[in-house]
């Protein structure tokens, strides 16, 4: 019988990818009873803090521990979508060949959500927003994204309308805006929000997401964090990626959630409905030009609502849809029909 190895899983891309990758140590541990030791090397070690499934939690520049076998992880989203595979499953498929000699079956999801472990104080203590009592209820908004995939960005004017209307509603909680404004990112400050731009590291963001009543964001790391900690989310997704690839909504829970796992508060994943060009996702990243990755169904910026160009699938998602959804979701949470929790 083969001696159980010590595997070093490596993935060096963005925070959202790293959160999705977090299922690998959990499922390897559960599938092998902990006999296969697992370490990780990523750009975002905060994701793996407190993890009982990881022996060494390394940042990108750390050398491999002696005796470990390097296992680079990757994924092919188009292949995954063709096979109706979720993002989490794509990472397990990448890890499976390294673990297969020690398994009787392929790796599978035992929980349909990423794996983030909260410290006891993170779990029990609610963050305090600047200038407010510690127990102030709040929603998180992440209203921007990275420059490399412009088709994920929703028009700033629409974000401003959402926040303005919700901030004027005395029955709606405080809204806190999170994100980073470093090179390669776009996050414009929104009037009516508690401004936490550039004021939270990744671990603080996880803590904030755990205690938020809800989250509003695009297809970004925060939606995966919210799923990991059980927080409801409204995701402005458009049609770039099909819903079964990365959503945690009711449809995805019905398709991917193991029968033995209780459902967490489902996300609302808005994909543009009839304005989508394809049900399988176009995977376009840009706006203009003849390149294969540029959107072919683009609506230009205008003076009323589109402060930036919008793919038709993103333009079909209106501020009124988000406002109504957030109000309805918050009412449900207030009556005990939803909310955050592990």
Features:
342 residues, 12 helices, Rossmann fold, six-stranded parallel beta sheet, four-stranded parallel beta sheet
Q: How are the SSEs placed, and which strands pair?
A:
Layout: E1 6-11, H1 15-21, H2 23-32, E2 37-42, E3 57-59, E4 69-72, H3 77-82, H4 87-99, H5 120-124, E5 138-142, E6 145-146, H6 156-168, E7 174-177, E8 185-186, E9 194-195, H7 202-211, E10 214-218, H8 221-229, E11 233-236, H9 243-246, H10 250-256, E12 268-270, E13 298-299, E14 310-311, H11 312-315, H12 319-334
Parallel strand pairs: 1-2, 1-4, 2-3, 5-7, 5-10, 7-9, 10-11, 11-12
Antiparallel strand pairs: 6-8, 13-14
Summarize the structure in words.
- Helices cover 30% and strands 15% of the residues.
- With 342 residues, it is of the alpha/beta class.
- It has two domains: 6-102; 134-334, Glycogen Phosphorylase B (Rossmann fold, 3-Layer(aba) Sandwich), CATH 3.40.50.2000.
- The strands form four sheets. It has a six-stranded parallel β-sheet with strand order 9-7-5-10-11-12, with helices on both faces. The protein has a four-stranded parallel β-sheet with strand order 3-2-1-4.
- Strand 10, helix 8 (221-229) and strand 11 (233-236) form a beta-alpha-beta unit.
- Helix 1 runs parallel beside helix 8.
- The protein is globular and about 65 Å long.
- The protein starts with 5 loop residues before the first strand and ends in an 8-residue tail after the last helix.
As a whole number of angstroms, the C-alpha radius of gyration is 20 Å
Uncertain runs:
none
Looking at CATH, the homologous superfamily of the largest domain is Glycogen Phosphorylase B
**What CATH architecture of the largest domain would you give?**
3-Layer(aba) Sandwich
CATH class group of the largest domain? Alpha Beta
State the distance separating the first and last CA atoms: 38 Å
- Structural class determined from secondary elements: alpha/beta
- Which range does the strand content fall in? 5-15%
Secondary-structure element series: EHHEEEHHHEEHEEEHEHEHHEEEHH
At CATH level 3, the topology of the largest domain is Rossmann fold
Shape: globular
Query: How many DSSP H or I helices?
Result: 12
* Number of domain units: 2
Average pLDDT works out at 91
Widest sheet: strand ordering: 9-7-5-10-11-12
